[in-house]
Amino acid sequence: MNFIKTFLASLLAFFVANFVWFFLLIMFFAGVAALSQSSTVAVSPKSVLHIDLAESIVDAPVDDPFSEFDPMSMDMQKSLSNMDVMHAIGAAATDPNIEGIYINLTGAGTVSAAMLEEVRGYLNSFKESNKFIIAYGETYSQGGYYLASVADSIYLNPAGQMDWRGLAMQVVFYKGLLDKLGVEPQVFRHGTFKSAVEPYILNRMSPANRTQMETIANSIWGSLVNDIATSRNLSIDSLNMYATELSAMMPAEVVEKRLIDGLKYEDEIQDILREKLELDADEDVNFVTLGEYVASNPYTETYSDNKIEVIYADGQIVQGRSAKGSLGSTTLAEQLAEARMDEDVKAVVLRVNSPGGSALASEVMWREMELLRQQKPVIVSMGDYAASGGYYISAPADVIIADANTLTGSIGVFGLMFNAEKTLQNKLGVSIDVAKTNPSADMGSFHRGVTASERDFMMKGIEEVYSTFVNHVADGRNMTFDSVDAIGQGRVWTGNDGKRIGLVDEIGGLQYAIAVAAEKAECLDDYMVREAIGEPTGFMAIMDKFSAHISDRKMRKEMGIFYDDYCTLRALMENEGVQALALPIKIQ
Fold this sequence. Notes:
The protein is of the alpha/beta class. The protein is built from 21 helices and 26 strands. It has 3 domains: 1-36; 47-164 and 248-296, 2-enoyl-CoA Hydratase, Chain A, domain 1; 307-587, 2-enoyl-CoA Hydratase, Chain A, domain 1, CATH 3.90.226.10. Helix 2 (82-94) runs parallel beside helix 3, helix 3 runs parallel beside helix 4 (142-148) and helix 16 crosses helix 17 (481-487).
C-alpha cells in the first residue's frame, strides 16, 4: 500500500511539474510572439510623424524580451531607446514620404529633463530640413511645453491649461518612521553635501543640501527658460515673471503672452495639417507614430571596418553582473575589455546614466576604463545621472560630454548601517546574544550599534576611498587634488555647472558624443556605430527575466512614488562596503 501511495504521489508530482513547465512555455512563446509582432505601417507619401510621449523613451536599448509586457493588464507597453528616437527623427528629415512632425502631448507620460533635452535637440536638427513641426496639447506640463516650444506652431485646447510655475526639488525623509520603529541609522561619510544618507538621519534638508538643491533647480530651470526664450523669441525675464505671478496658466493668458500660438480643438489641428499636406477636407491624415516608424524603417548602419562602440553604463552600481535596474561591475568590465581587444573598434562611447553605488564596483570598472583609454579614444556621454560612482567611472575618459540638465559630480562616499536592537527588544520582544572570538567579530550586525573603535575603522575606510576617488578625478581631469576636493564633498552639479567648474568638457547629447569619438579616432568620414547590448542566454535566463519582470511590475504599481526610494535602499543594503551614491532627486 505504501508503495502504491508513493508511486501515485510521484506520478502526481511528475504531472504537476510538467504542467507548470508547459504553462511557462506557453507564456514564454506567447510573449515572444507578441514582442515579435511589431506594428508595421505603410509610410505612404504625405505622411506625418506623430510624436507622443506615451511611448516611453529610455536611455539604453532594452535587453529584456518581456520588458514591454505588462502582466497586470496583459498589454504591451511601448518603449523606445534614445538611439531609436535619434535615428527615426534623423531619417524622417530626409524621408520624402514624411512631410512634417506632429507633437501631441495629450496624455503624455513623464520624461526626464535630460532626455527631453536630447529629443528636443533631434527636433531642432529636423527643422533644418524645412519641414514643419506642429505641437498640440489639451494641457501642457512644464516639460511638455519645453519640448513643444521647438515647434513652428503651438496650440492648446480652448478649455485646457498650461503649467508654468517653476521647478521644485523633492526629497522624502524617513527619520520619523525609523524613530517610531526604534531603528538607529549609523552613518559614516565624507562630504558636506553627501546627502544620500540624509533621509534616514534628518527630517528636512540640511543647509548644505538645501543650497545644493536650489542651485540644481535654478540651473535646470535656467536652461529650460533660456531654450524656450530663444525658440519663442521671448525674454527670459518675462518668462520668469510669468512663473512667479502664475500669470501664464490659463488659455487666454498664454496666447496673449505668445507662449501659445492659438487655441484649437484637435479636429481643427487636423484641418491645419490637411492644408499643409494639400489634402481634401474628407481625406484622413496618415499619421505614423515613432514606434511604428522605427519598426517599419529599422535603422541599419552602412558597414565599415571602423566601429564606434556604444556601451551603456545604466543603473545603480553593484558588484557582479548587471540585473534589472542595476549596473554590474563584472558585466561592464567585460564589455569594456572586449572593446579594448577588438581591433575593429576604433573608439568607445560610454553612455553613463547612473547615480552610482558600490565604491568597490566603481573601482573595478574605473580600472577597465583606464586600460581602454590607453589604447583607443574613450568618450563619455552623460544622460540623466552620472553622479558619484557614475562620475567615478567617467573620470578617465578623454572627453566628457553631458546634457545641460545632467546631474553629475557628487564626488563623495559614505557607509550606512542600521541598528535594530531596540526594535527587536521593544517591538518584538526578541533579544540576540553572541559568542565570539574577538570583540568586533559581529561588526555590522543589525542587532547592535558600532563601538568607538569600529567607527574609527569605518571612517578610516571612508577617507581612504574618498582620497582614491579624488585622485582618480584629478588624474583624469588634469586637476590638483585640492581643486577637485573643493568642488567635491559630495556636491551634485548640473551639466552646465559641471562644464563651468571643469568636471565636463562639452554640452551635448549622445549623437554629438558619437561624432566626437569618430573624430578622435580619425574616421569621421568612414565609420559605423555598434551598440553593446547584453542578451539573456538560455531558457532559464529568459524565464528568470520573465519572473523578475512580473515581480517588478507588481512592486512598482503597489509602491507608487516610494518605489525609487525602496530600490535605492535595497541596493544600499545589498551592496557591501563603502558607497559612492547620489540621492535620486525628484523634480516637480
